[in-house]
Write a structure and sequence with these properties.
Layout: E1 11-20, H1 25-32, E2 44-50, E3 58-65, H2 68-74, H3 78-87, E4 91-102
Antiparallel strand pairs: 1-3, 1-4, 2-3
């Protein structure tokens, strides 16, 4: 019998990195950690911000969304647009990451 892959509704993940200008990482982190009204209601299930001491000018973000459309529509929220506008001058332009459809988790 083949294993069942879709035991929970599929969700959308965005795992990325944002390069910051030297010395601005912590400020960008503080912007991204502020409450963003409407994010949860837009379909955001998880939004985690982190750093790695071996990458002192990089911020890492892991996001889990109800769907790709929910992620895309969140970019129109006033709170998200304000955070992007405030952080943008401190970013180096180096961005990386991956987006994928989540099929499940052994924890759920």
């Amino acid at each position: 019998m083949a294993p069942v892959l879709h035991t929970v509704p599929m969700t959308f993940a965005n795992v990325g990195s944002l390069g910051t200008k030297p010395g601005h990482r912590d400020t960008v982190v503080s912007i991204l950690l502020r409450p963003m009204p409407g994010l949860k209601e837009a379909g955001c299930l998880l939004y985690e911000v982190g750093v790695n001491d071996e990458a002192p000018d990089t911020v890492f973000v892991c996001e889990l969304w109800e769907s790709p459309a929910a992620h895309k529509s969140s970019l129109q929220l006033d709170s998200v647009r304000a955070a992007i506008a405030e952080a943008m001058p401190m970013l180096s332009g180096e961005m990386g990451g991956n987006q994928f459809t989540v099929l499940g988790s052994p924890l759920r």
